[in-house]
Amino acid sequence: MMIMSNISVGIAPIGWTNDDLPELGGETQYQQILSEVALSGFAGTEIGNKYPKDPKVLKHQLDLRGIRIASAWFGTYFTTQPFEQVEKDFIAFRDYMNSLGADHINLCEQGNTIQGMMDVPVFDGKPEFTAEEWDKVTKGLDRLGEIAADTGTIVSYHHHMGTGVQTTAEIDRLMENTDPDKVKLLVDIGHLQFSGEDPVDIVTRYKDRIGHFHLKDIRPDVLQRVKDEKLSFLQAVLAGVFTIPGDGQGDFKTILQPVVESDYDGWFLVEAEQDPAKADPFEYALRARKYIKETLGV
Predict the structure, then answer these.
(1) Rounded Cα distance, 107 and 184, in Å
(2) Going by DSSP bridges, is the β-strand pair 210-215/217-218 parallel, antiparallel, or unpaired?
(3) What whole-number distance in Å separates Cα of residue 189 and Cα of residue 254?
(4) On the CB side of 247, how many CA atoms lie within 13 Å of its CA?
(5) Which domains are assigned to the chain?
(6) Which of 33, 53, 51 is nearest to 42 (CA)?
(7) H helices of 40-81, where?
């Protein structure tokens, strides 16, 4: 097998402490997270709520461990806020990321999202964009892509459960109505499986436009419970719907081998939010890194 890609493998802090549920892992210090990321054999991480806000402090701690920031989440509000406010917030965040040496930002439209609502069923309560909202989102994303490119930064769109861009049809519509040179796609394998989409189809269709990967798996028995009991997204996370690659139903070899053999130049970022009291973050990080190495050779 000839590997042509230039893939870096990282892991998000969300297994240690959760931004949407900060009580999970609330006692964990950021230094422990960064140390265990490095000890597990990962090259980098994403921004988490425990990390120092001062980029000099965070960069120093990263450098001590030989790891770096791969990317970070930025929620847009094109459907509920004036574009000027979104633009201002994005520029500040872009500059913060650049000060850390990071050149990738993950965007997700958060207007009317239900992902953070504990009592709204994730499937039944999902928002749907109007034609006017779709226009605001796609034009706004293109503009942020332009602003990002001014400093050599790439933006990728993160389809997400409980938002207006979750299904294959919605991903297709977003991709069709944004500029490929300005907006890439973040493929989150766990969210695709959760929603009932086909990760192989999405990766095959958009292979040349993918800017970032989130790798997590689904526990099918928990997913069925989410559907049967009409659980919210947060309730699903607490129930353990997500897990690391290789610990659920996903066939990561089939999904990602074509990417490994392509000229993809980016990250495979493990992002498997679980309750750290039930799933020891360090143990699961070690298991995830071993699985990716053995299965994909990266």
Answers:
(1) 10
(2) unpaired
(3) 12
(4) 21
(5) 8-296 (3.20.20.150)
(6) 33
(7) 55-65
Per-residue pLDDT of the chain (298 residues; tens, 9 = 90+): 455 569 999 999 999 998 888 888 889 999 999 999 999 999 999 999 999 999 999 999 999 999 999 999 999 999 999 999 999 999 999 999 999 999 999 999 999 999 999 999 999 999 999 999 999 999 999 999 999 999 999 999 999 999 999 999 999 999 999 999 999 999 999 999 999 999 999 999 999 999 999 999 999 999 999 999 999 999 999 999 999 999 999 999 999 999 999 999 999 999 999 999 999 999 999 999 999 999 999 9
The identity of residue 167, as a single letter, is T
Retrieve residue 288's tokens: 């995830």
Alpha-carbon distance values, 193 to 179, 218, 279 (Å): 26, 7, 21
Nearest Cα to 202, choosing from 258, 249, 134, 121? 258
Pull the structure tokens for residue 222: 């928990």
